[in-house]
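Sequence, please.
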């Protein structure tokens, strides 16, 4: 799974790990990314954050979205179903 996340699909195929277990672990991480994205969204729309803090929060949220997308792609490459 780490090899797939890093873009080394050939190395991932050579590994003898259980893809179902890897998918399960990555789905836990994906669920946490969903939670982080939602938390930043709540903060951003709350009206409680001043402009500089809001800018940082939105930037951090974009990082979590990128992590989410990478996890989804990796889970799918392992034949798993990403959690919603």
């Amino acid at each position: 799974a780490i090899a797939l996340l890093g873009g080394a699909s050939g190395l991932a195929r050579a590994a003898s790990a259980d893809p179902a277990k890897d998918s399960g672990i990555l789905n836990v991480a994906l669920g946490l990314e969903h939670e982080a994205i939602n938390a930043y969204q709540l903060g951003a729309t709350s009206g409680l954050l001043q402009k500089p803090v809001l800018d940082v929060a939105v930037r951090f949220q974009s990082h979590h979205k990128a992590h989410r997308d990478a996890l989804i792609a990796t889970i799918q490459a392992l034949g798993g179903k990403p959690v919603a």
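DSSP finds four helices and no strands in the chain.
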